[in-house]
Backbone:
């Protein structure tokens, strides 16, 4: 592979802040691999896509839910309860690797949204009232995954060159945009629903699956690659190497 280009300071007026063009050229000249940057964008999409998707789709399914518009309040409560996920991770992170945590969190989201595609409109009777129990339960597990991503995504990108942080941030921002765009296409004006809500939830599962695939590809990058420079700089030297150097 080609070695990354070294950054050479661009001439500027004394004391003047660098221009936008100068900052852009510096960004492009630093250690960035376009394919890795793109993978981090896809990886970041998995951060909040399920919660954004649930609220984007709510307006289209509210008439089929026994709670009506009160379902928004139920979903908000469920999402707040899902913050137990990050708490459990913090308490048990010594017993799980960062790689395993990422795989589990994204797989949980995929499973929740894929199952929701088939049971979102089913109900059950609780305390004499009809409720969208499968929707709320699966929304809870999907929200657990979303809420925990902040604790597992950012430590992972910290292993790479700092320029990839912007890619992860862009991906997280796209999660809401993609969910809203799919909902807009689904409810095309003058055409009714182009596809059922179950298909929408399946598409959310696909986006999460792509995020998981992007993570697995990023995780396979050699620790000696330029993208992982920060990880190398934070590693302690091997004891054997020190011994050989002193002998």
Residues:
């Amino acid at each position: 592979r080609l070695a990354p280009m070294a950054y050479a300071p661009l001439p500027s007026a004394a004391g003047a802040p660098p221009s936008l063009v100068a900052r852009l050229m510096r960004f492009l000249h630093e250690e960035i691999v376009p394919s890795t940057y793109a993978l981090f964008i896809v990886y970041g999409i998995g951060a909040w896509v399920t919660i954004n998707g649930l609220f984007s789709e709510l307006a289209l399914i509210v008439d089929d839910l026994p709670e009506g518009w009160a379902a928004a309040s139920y979903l908000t409560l469920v999402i707040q309860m899902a913050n137990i996920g990050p708490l459990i991770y913090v308490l048990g992170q010594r017993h799980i690797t960062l790689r395993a945590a990422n795989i589990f969190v994204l797989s949980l989201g995929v499973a929740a949204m894929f199952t929701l595609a088939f049971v979102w409109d089913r109900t059950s009777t609780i305390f004499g009232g009809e409720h969208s129990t499968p929707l709320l339960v699966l929304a809870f597990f999907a929200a657990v995954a979303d809420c925990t991503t902040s604790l597992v995504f950012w430590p992972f990108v910290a292993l790479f060159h700092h320029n990839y942080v912007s890619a992860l941030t862009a991906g997280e921002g796209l999660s809401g945009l993609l969910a809203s765009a799919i909902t807009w296409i689904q409810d095309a004006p003058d055409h009714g629903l182009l596809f059922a809500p179950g298909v929408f939830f399946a598409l959310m599962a696909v986006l999460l699956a792509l995020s998981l695939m992007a993570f697995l590809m990023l995780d396979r990058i050699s620790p000696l690659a330029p993208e992982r420079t920060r990880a190398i700089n934070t590693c302690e030297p091997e004891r054997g190497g020190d011994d050989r150097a002193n002998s």
Observations:
- Residues 133-157 form the longest helix (25 residues).
- Residues 43 and 211 are 4 Å apart (CA to CA).
- The first strand starts at residue 124 and ends at 126.
- The two ends are 35 Å apart (CA to CA).
